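User: Okay, second chain of the day. Same drill as before: sequence in, structure tokens out.
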Amino acid sequence: MKKISWRKMLSCLLAAGMVTVMAAACGSDSGDSGADQASSAEEETVTITFMRTGTPEVLHEIFDPIIESFEEEYPNIKVDMQDLGWSDAETTLQVMASSQTLPDVMYHLPVSIFDMADKGLIEDLTSYMDDELKEDIYPSLLEAGQYDGKQYMIPCGALTLLYWYNTELFEQAGLDPDNPPATWDEFLAAAKAISENTDAAGIAMYGMPSGGETSFFFESLFASEIGGETWDGERYTYEYDENRQAAIDTLEFIQELTQYSQGAVEETSRFDIRTMLRDGTVGMALDAVNMANQIQDGLDSGQFRVAQIPAGASGKQMSAVNVGGFFIPTNSEHKEEAWTFLRYLMNTDNQKAHSTYGSIPILKSEAETYDTSDPYWGTIIKSVEDSVPEGVCPKTNSLWNLTGEQLQLLMMNNQDAETTLDNIIAGHEEIYNE
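Assistant: Same drill. Structure tokens below.
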């Protein structure tokens, strides 16, 4: 056998080592490739579903541009916007909830949201919220999205009760349009003056019991009477003995107002009174910001104006606030991406665009973009600042309907204020204990 020199043997060993190193390097490259593939998989496009209850063609005008800009900023998240009209909303919501097919992000009303939260179907968003968002949302609105101490809903649409009036009828009645009534006594006197000195009724009143319309009316006036909260998280504060007289005074005020109304209040809804004010058949109305959609030309010309609702005994022109908002269901498989989109919707510019659908400002930063020296916007924003959360719980629809039925009897003069309050309290107690 031929003898191999140590130099040649060393050379062979070094060569073999190089091969091993190269093989290891190749193995390492293969590993990096796997990591890259895993990373790539993590960044694969995710599609989330989004549903905002309402009129589809109007909502797409608002949200399509927002979604487009969102997808540009977050290219790995696509948004599939789905339509749902109000007429089908509740039935469809319940079907989706029972089949665990709720969209990743949805808008709806707190009664249904809190009911689903009770059943474990809604994600608690408390930990998702950043300080900037919490501080930007008006306190009463933020609180209105909470149930059982948790933030299940992010408010993005809200209404306060506002006072709308016809300046031409004011002048005909000998009233000063530049100084609208600021107290209940002044408000009653104005309604009487318009009724007696013009061809119009003093005030538009609505008495249909369904939908919580008259309950919201009563609750807002009661808030102004006591100057504080109307719901303590468990029940309405007008049900407590210490607030009994304030509640009776509020109901008597409603009954007095009705004598200067257009009549047939039991057949009139809040939607009907907007046409009445627009057409000049009534001189005043208490309604939400949606009234502006019916009387915009008159607002622009100065024929109509808006003010805060008159103050009760507290001296505060205060309203309850009715809220709707976004939520994330527990069935969502992409909760982080859903929150990323929801949070993007709550950016100042996006929320301002959303508010054009019919809402008071939700964000303080949004309100800052309006000219508060303008009497219209100054009034709207002040009404938000002075608002308290409307009472809402999973049983609210039943509570509202019962309250509405009793208020209708009151406005038809079929029962007095004290009887109305007693019937409301007794009926609510049964509902609480169901």
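The longest strand covers residues 320-327.

User: Thanks, on to the next one.
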